[in-house]
């Protein structure tokens, strides 16, 4: 099946998707339609192993996706994958001379264009295993993806860094400087904010790719200084005098007198999504500390 090029634009080639209906690529209004095989998938230009932030990361490296399927980020025949339109762009080298007719009929030439501004590329779009040759297209600057795709996992790491996530803003009862008795519960909590508990979000963009990450604390592990630990999946509840000796939402009961160092490890989980369709998760820890004094009942009564 074929659709003749009109309006003086050079013919383009579109690969049918098998369902009898196809459109021209973005920004191109005239195209020849014909069935083709799938384009060659070259292994160059992909990759990038994800790295964890303290705790680890998932989601893969730089990937190029068409119709939800991973493809090579560089194919020698087609050039570099552009995530903004899911097509391949290959710069003409050398560029056509300034008086070439190609400059006049290429898609995207702006009004008032002058020789030496921008460059011409050949754009190729692939859909459902078929090849679309979209012909000449102009761009004032190299398109996103030219020279290699940005690794979304690395952008996610940058997003995490920009959030400045913190450890717990520790609350403890009895308050620092005072004492409680052996056998009475000690209350732990964190004062909640977006940087101590979440959620907190940030976005980072580069090379035509945007990653949005959202962080929250999954749990806080309180090491109590007496060889024990308490894992709390809530921020805990701040103590009020009317609570008396009731059990805390998050806390610990000491069985021996002493001065104990308490460490709180906040286990942050950061889920991220990229405009490429990739997703991932980063885990990272943040620390905070406090201390508590525990006294024997008879010793406290003598003070």
From TrEMBL:
InterPro entries: PKD_dom. Residues 222-265 form the PKD domain. It comes from the Bacteria. It comes from Streptomyces kaniharaensis. Residues 44-59 have a biased composition (Gly residues). PROSITE patterns: PKD. Residues 38-59 are annotated as: Disordered. This is ATP/GTP-binding protein.
């Amino acid at each position: 099946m074929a659709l003749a090029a009109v309006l003086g634009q050079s013919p383009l080639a579109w690969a049918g998707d098998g369902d009898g209906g196809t459109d021209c690529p973005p920004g191109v209004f005239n195209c020849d339609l014909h069935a083709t095989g799938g384009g060659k998938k070259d292994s160059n230009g992909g990759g990038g192993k994800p790295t964890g932030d303290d705790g680890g990361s998932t989601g893969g490296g730089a990937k190029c996706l068409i119709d939800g399927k991973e493809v090579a980020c560089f194919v020698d025949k087609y050039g570099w994958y552009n995530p903004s339109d899911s097509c391949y762009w290959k710069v003409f080298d050398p560029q056509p001379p300034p008086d070439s007719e190609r400059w006049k009929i290429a898609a995207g030439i702006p009004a008032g264009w002058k020789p030496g501004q921008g460059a011409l590329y050949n754009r190729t779009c692939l859909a459902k295993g078929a090849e679309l040759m979209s012909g000449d297209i102009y761009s004032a600057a190299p398109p996103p993806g030219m020279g290699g795709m940005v690794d979304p996992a690395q952008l996610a790491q940058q997003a995490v860094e920009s959030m400045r996530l913190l450890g717990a803003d520790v609350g403890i009862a009895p308050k620092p400087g005072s004492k409680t008795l052996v056998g009475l519960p000690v209350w732990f909590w964190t004062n909640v904010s977006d940087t101590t508990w979440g959620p907190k979000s940030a976005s980072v963009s580069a090379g035509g790719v945007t990653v949005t990450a959202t962080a929250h604390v999954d749990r806080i592990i309180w090491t109590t200084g007496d060889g024990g630990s308490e894992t709390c999946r809530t921020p805990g509840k701040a103590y009020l005098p009317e609570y008396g000796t009731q059990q805390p939402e998050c806390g610990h009961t000491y069985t021996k007198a002493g001065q104990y160092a308490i460490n709180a490890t906040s286990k942050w989980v950061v889920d991220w999504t990229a405009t490429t369709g990739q997703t991932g998760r980063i885990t990272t820890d943040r620390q905070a500390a406090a201390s508590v004094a525990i006294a024997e009942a008879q010793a406290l009564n003598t003070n």
